[in-house]
Amino acid sequence: MDALSPKKKILAAGEAIMAEAGLNARISDIAARAGVSDSVLYHYYKNKEDLLFSIAEERLRDLREAMEEQLLGLSDPMSRLRKLFFFRLHYLMKNKDYGNLLMFECRSNMGFYSHPAFAQARWFMSLLGRILKDGMEKGVFRNDLNVWLVRDAVFGLLDLANMAMLLGRETESAGNAETLFGLIEPMVTGGPETRPLEPDKRQRILRAAENLFAEKGFANATIQAIAAAAGVGDGTVYDYFKNKEDVLFSVLAGGFQPSERRKGFQDHLRDSDDSGKEPGSLEKLERFIRRFFQIGLTQPAFARIFIIHGIFNRPFYGSPAHQSFERYMENLDRCIGACRREKTVRSDIDPGVVRLLVIGAFSHLTLRWQISENKTNLDKAGEINAMTELVIRSVSTR
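RE: above sequence
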């Protein structure tokens, strides 16, 4: 496009003015700054919203070209992941007008997610997906990665870090790309995490059967496979259940057992679990993060409002609502502090940076659920558990 074309002038003027005024900007002011008439502006753009999203689309296209150039000659998956992370972080730091426009004007408007501009944003998510898959194939990354969840965590953290800087609220660590990336690297590297077997063999069998029935279906899940997944012998399964059908109905019965109906954010902040047993600090941290992610599953309408009109809405950060949210998130800080004392999380972990990761991952995970074309095929509960494990993996000393 000609550097002196009216369209390019309108985009530049629109970015400068709308970065501060958003959709409250006047078309006449934008046109005057671009040196064109209002009618010329309307010749290219239907309305202010179309102009806003088109500015983001143009910038994202430029960013995409620059990103492709940065990756030339890099074949190592970890090097490509680092380059993507660092370049995306610093680009918005250096281009604050565009950062304000993208994060607080576009991302807070549901229309953005159906505009062609969002297709440019999706390209970066696809790029990360390709890097992760390449790393898994080459043995550089874990072979059991959930690519969707890692993408949500990475871009969620980038979003929240950039917004913290734009708001002037960043901690020293939040402005340090190495500190931020230090949360991502443990998610994708290392061998599969092993967890201690549950002492109750019957519960282990039921848990294994549930996973296999969900993955393979009842007909294709064998007693032998269930026993192997549960870490018991084939005969042990028959010690507790008559046959495979008995296992299936026992799984279903367990899912319908009566339980206390829980409401609100604060429920999971109790010191003890349902049995009255005092959990360890790392368990409390894991429970807090999991229950926070579950908001997107159990309260989808609220989650949508919180993301669109909270996280990606600049006025939210100066409101009493944000103060309430900050008090809630202080529980995360306390959990991390207790884990530090028990040495179950890394000593270099900054609670503020972990907040960015958790909130950012929540926003991307929940939005993906809400705009997905295949909502009925999403295992939301499974993704919540897997995302929680990713975050715990990023901070723990295990």
